[in-house]
Every structure is written in C-alpha cells, then in structure tokens.
Amino acid sequence: MNDSLTPELIEKTKAKLSFPDKLFIGGNYANSLTGKTFNNISPIDGKNINDVTFSQKEDIDAAVKIARKTFESGVWSKSDPSFRKKILLKFADLLEKHHLELALLDTIDMGKTISDTYNADVPGSVDTIRWYAEIIDKLYDDIAPTPYKTLAMITKEPIGVVAGIVPWNYPLMMAIWKLGPSLITGNSLLLKPAEQSPLSAIRLGELLMEAGLPEGVFSVLPGDGPTTGKALALHNDVDCVAFTGSGEVGKLILQYSGQSNMKRVQLECGGKSPNIVFADHNNLDLVAEKSAYAIFGNQGEVCSAGSRLIIQEDIKDDFVKKLIEISKTMMPGDPFDPESFMGAIVDKTQLDKINNYVKIGKEEGANIATGGNITMSDTGGYYYEPTILKNVKKGMRGAREEIFGPVFFQQLHLRKLMKLLK
Q: What confidence score (pLDDT) does residue 313 get?
C-alpha cells in the first residue's frame, strides 16, 4: 500500500467525486442524438452510479464524420512531432494530477480494489503515455536498399480514423493502451469503453482538451457491443479497429471488417494460460505465491490469468495445500480498503457465469479444494471466493474455456502429460 493512500483521503476524495455521463465528441460532452441512456451499476453494492449516454448509430455517424474532417484538416495528423509530444506529456501530467480521482472512478465502476487502481493502473497509465510521447520524435523513416540510381523511402504515416474498443477489467489502462499509439502517430481516435466501466474513459476527453489536444481528434462513445461496438466496426469510414476482449467478439470484429470496407483489425483476445510447476524448483513456496497471484489478482479478470495448474505428480498434494493457505489471505473485501486483496466481480452476469462454471466443474467430476461460493451478499454487490478445483480432466469445460474469474483448475499431472507427448 502506498503510504499516502489513507482511508481518510479516500473518503474525502469520494465525497467530492463527480461521475461523467455524456459521450464526448468534437471537443464537447453531449447526449445521444436519440436521448438514450443506460444504467451504470457499481458492483461494490449493486446500486446505480449514474445513467450514461448510450451512443447509437446516429452518434457513431456524427463522430466519424468529425473525426474524418479533423484528420483531413491536418491540425493533428500533419502537426509537428514536437507539438504532439508536448500535448501528450502535458496529458500525462494531468493524469498524475488527478491520480486518486481516476483510481476511484475505476474502483467504483468496475469493483477492483483501490490498492490496484491507485498503485498500479493509474501509474501504469501515466508511464505508458510518457513512453509513447517520448518516442514521437525518435521514430525514423527508412531508406530501402536499392541500386545506385534509385531511391526508395519507407515512411510511417497515420492510418486515419481509428476505433478503439476496450474491455472492463482495466478501464483506464486499456483506454490508454489504445490512446497512446493512436494519437502519437496522428490518427483520430474514437474510443468505446465497456458499458460496465465507462467513467474514467469519459473523463479522459476533458483532460485531453485541457492538455491542448485539438477538437475532434478524440471522441468517447459509451455503449454496448451489439449496438455501439458493431456500428463502429461496420462503419465504412473507419480505417482500423483496435479491439481488446473475448475471442468470441474478436471473431465478430473480423467479420464486420469483411462485411464493410475491409478495415484493418488489431485484436488482443482472451486465453487459457497454464502454470507448469516442476518438483525440482528450489522455492516452491514462492512458486505457489506467484501462481495464486496469477489467478486471484484482479479477481481473476485478466486475459492472461494463469487459470490452469499443470503440476508434477510428486508434489501435487503439498503444492495444492500451499495454494489453499495462500488463497485464505486473498479473500475479497471492501474495495475501498487499501488492505483488501480482491474486490468485486464486475457485474451480476459475470458473477453468475463464474459460479456456473464451478457447478459444471463439480458435475463433470472435479473436486473443490477451497472456495466455490458467492460471498459478501449482504453488501448488495458481487463477490466470489478464490476457488481451486482439483482432479480436472483435459476435456472439461473449465479446462478449455476462459472463465474470467478467480477459479484455478488443477488439470493434468506432468507424468501423464509426458505420456501424451510421446
């Protein structure tokens, strides 16, 4: 815990916090042209934070038109690298200035702990923007190898209008990962945050204007995937979609590109990552600690979460015992408490999905070593215990499908794995 992050400071800042609720377009906040909104529920207590503007196709068309006009004007796309660098560095300073505010917005909106948002997500976002800002004037074009009388140049140019579609598990950081590379290269960016966690992304519009970004370069379009995300991915005047999320939706993005203008697609999709543990490691206590963190950190809501344990049979019982003891120190708690390790699951839909996967695992023959229960129901929020399932076979659904929750599957022993590989 950062020494400056005290409960008193958290409560004082919460009392002054405001919750942005508009789309951001052309340098200004606005309602949807249709007037539609959606409820933004906090998973901490199940209560509505605010009603957020629901961007429809009409709003997408207007935002793309402004983004294209701005791009073609050259006010950003053809600006000097030194100018773009100056704006991005000032933006990084503003992120740092509003450190606790942004951390609280993500904690309230998504349910992750204030310790994670304050000590990792916001500082990581600041570092990311500064890193990209510093390479703006250090990326050179190339001269291709050619015959003596020929000159061939390879130039780096902005793509044009980019749509960035981000998930809910790291709301600010995922937005920044799209924003940094898009803006330093001169593109116009249309950012669609996840409907479960739009607050910090919406706030970025105001901070970028304060940093001096020209109007129309950056837009925020809150809404869901089937309406807002689909309209962006199908739009014939969007040049690129950069998407982070599930493999299922990633496939749809590829289809939408083919159905429209064959726009470029950049995908970062989910996975089912294994931890492979050998008996001869000289510090199995440390391995157990890191393995537990890899699946229970951020409530297991991580695309690269180490959700499978493949372990040498000689040590499987002792190693699982170590994991169980460590998991007891990682129980969910009040997300505003700087000492809490785990916070809330993002919404009830995800909570029910996690719980259902555990039930399926039991029905398929796996055994619960620890956890396996919804907890803290008295808060009105959505919390799940760190869970370990033993004796998981390779064909079970939990061993094959991404759950996105704090559920660890002890899958296949290495002795059996070696037989399969022969």
A: 87
Distance CA(157)–CA(136), nearest Å, equals 12
pLDDT at residue 4 in the model: 82
Which SS3 state, helix, strand or coil, does residue 194 take?
Answer: coil
Contacts 24+ apart (CB under 8 A), 36-41: 38/195, 38/222, 38/223, 38/224, 40/109, 40/195, 40/198, 40/199, 41/347
| Structure letter (DSSP) for residue 138 | G
* DSSP 8-state assignment for residue 153: E
Residues near 269 by Cβ (< 8 Å), separated by ≥ 6? Answer: 244, 245, 246, 247, 250, 303
101, 206, 215, 268: which is the annotated catalytic residue? 268
Name the catalytic one among 240, 301, 303, 385.
303
Region of residue 104 (phi > 0: left; psi between -120 and 50: alpha; otherwise: beta): alpha
* Ranges of the chain with pLDDT below 70: 1-3, 412-422
- Helix, strand, coil proportions of the chain in percent (round to 5)? 45, 20, 35
Token pair belonging to 227: 């309406």
Examine the residue annotation and report whether 303 is marked as an active-site residue of this protein. yes
**Ordered domains of the chain (ranges, CATH):** 7-269 (3.40.605.10), 274-421 (3.40.309.10)
In degrees and rounded to multiples of 5, residue 2 shows phi and psi of -70, 130
Q: Which of 361, 386, 356, 360 is nearest to 371 (CA)?
A: 386
Its pTM stands at 0.94
Asked about 325 being catalytic, the answer comes back as no
Q: Which of 6, 196, 217 is nearest to 91 (CA)?
A: 217
Q: Are strands 142-143 and 48-53 parallel, antiparallel or unpaired?
A: unpaired
In this prediction, residue 87 carries a pLDDT of 98
